[in-house]
Design brief:
single chain; mainly alpha; Fic-like fold; Arc Repressor Mutant, subunit A; 3 domains; two-stranded antiparallel sheet; 20 helices; about 55% helix
């Protein structure tokens, strides 16, 4: 990833045209025109677009900056020169926020599969695993998805640093839901970081503490090209206190939509880079904390890192666009809203695919000669109720058969690996196998 071209200096362009009142007047008139192609472009992209007839790229940029400066709203995050970061709400941000309000929070009805307590956990765990894996991969974890899923689902100990990172992320995401009712504090930020970095850090004392003045941390690529150098360590206590005030709604003194506040919180932690390692994972965890705290319940089931990981350069560029253009957070907000939009769509696509797959398996079951109609009915029910417990007595009553017939039905399903059994007192309980769908797909017709 390359560093974007720094935009021309606003004051330098103004001084160049200040003595030409007529020309300056025309530029000011152009400032009220729509943005290029209706998009919020950085200079790095704008310079490749054809400018309005009769104007140079610099004049066009100057006009857009006039338009933006009149609408900017600052926040309490400041850069290393004490200049504030700012943002503005431009199209299509209001429409994107409205869609998120409708589809991810409030009293909007949940998808049936998530509302159903018997299947809800499947989607919840799937989302946690997906986020844990892809968030770790963004930070260098190299374990395959298949191996990582197997580790988490079986509960085996991690075998290397990558697996430990993924397991830590998984446990952190589980904890975030329990932390959503807490106000953000420096202690809570440190606790989240400690969850994320337990064991993988070279210096175990760095887990949960801010970096020291003797620990220089920079963001660079493999060729040592410097992308970002965070503020000095001796400012972190004050900066983190300001970040927590922002996260808890104590600042600024005007309304910020909670989704935008959550996105800016993500940027803030990443910009300040308060820890020796694990800053990106902590920043994304704070985004989830903020979204859940503000009632966007769907984010228990949504993975943003899955989307970010598919185009990681766009993620880095969104940070750099903000830093190279007057601390304009609008670039990062727009990028992150697109990520959220895609992540929600991906969840609904997954639910649709999963539903179709279950319907196909249930349809296939009707043609499996190895199972009788009672067993097919039970397995069909088990697909939709993966945590249900069956007993010989319940199966006997459901199908009006004698005890021995019910017993043979369930034992046969257990022998085929479709059910697992355990005894409590004098009663045997049968539950669907964890990999029931996979095993059904291998059954001979």
């Amino acid at each position: 990833m390359r560093i974007p071209k720094t935009p021309p200096d606003f004051n330098t362009i103004f001084a160049r045209f200040a003595k030409n009142a007529e020309r300056l007047g025309k530029i000011f008139q152009m400032a009220s025109a729509p943005a290029a192609k209706g998009k919020y472009l950085h200079w790095d992209k704008l310079r490749h677009c054809p400018p309005p007839e009769g104007f140079s790229h610099e004049q066009w940029w100057f006009a857009l900056k006039i338009q933006r400066r009149n609408l900017f709203k600052p926040i309490t995050l400041r850069d290393k020169k004490a200049e504030p970061f700012r943002h503005l709400v431009v199209d299509p941000i209001p429409e994107m926020l409205h869609k998120i309000d409708q589809g991810a929070g409030g009293s909007i009805a949940m998808p049936d599969q998530i509302a159903n307590p018997d299947t809800r956990d499947q989607y919840y765990i799937r989302s946690l695993i997906q986020e844990a894996i892809t968030s770790s991969q963004l930070e260098g974890a190299v374990t395959t998805r298949k191996i990582a899923k197997e580790m988490i689902r079986t509960g085996r100990p991690p075998q290397d640093r990558s697996e430990q990172m993924i397991l830590n992320n998984f446990k952190t995401m589980q904890s975030i839901g329990k932390m959503k009712d807490k106000s953000l504090s420096k202690e809570l930020v440190s606790e989240i970081h400690r969850f994320i970095t337990e064991k993988p850090l070279d210096d175990s004392t760095a887990a949960g503490r801010f970096r020291r003045t003797d620990e220089r941390i920079v963001v660079a690529d493999m060729y040592n090209e410097l992308f970002h150098e965070p503020p000095p360590a001796d400012q972190l206590e004050k900066r983190m206190a300001a970040m927590c005030d922002f996260a808890n709604g104590a600042s600024p003194d005007y309304f910020i939509h909670p989704v935008i506040r959550s996105i800016i919180l993500h940027f803030w932690l990443a910009y300040d880079h308060p820890f020796v390692d694990g800053n990106g994972r902590t920043a994304r965890a704070l985004f989830y904390w903020s979204m859940l705290r503000n009632g966007f319940w769907l984010f228990e089931f949504v993975s943003i890192s899955q989307i970010i990981h598919s185009h990681p350069a766009k993620y880095g560029r969104a940070f750099l666009y903000t830093e190279t253009d007057d601390n304009d957070l609008t670039y990062f907000v727009l990028y992150h809203l697109e990520v959220i939009e895609r992540a929600i769509k991906e969840l609904h696509r997954y639910i649709k695919r999963k539903t179709k797959r279950l319907q196909a398996i249930e349809s296939q079951l009707r043609g499996v000669a190895a199972l009788n109609h009672r067993q097919r009915d039970l397995i069909s029910h088990a697909l939709r109720h993966p945590h249900h417990r069956y007993t010989i007595k319940s199966h006997q009553i459901s199908h009006n058969v004698v005890y021995q017939t019910g017993r043979l039905d369930l034992l046969d399903l257990e022998n085929r690996g479709l059910l697992t059994s355990n005894k409590s007192g004098r009663t045997w309980y049968f539950t669907p196998a964890n990999d029931l769908e996979e095993k059904l797909a291998k059954l001979p017709l």
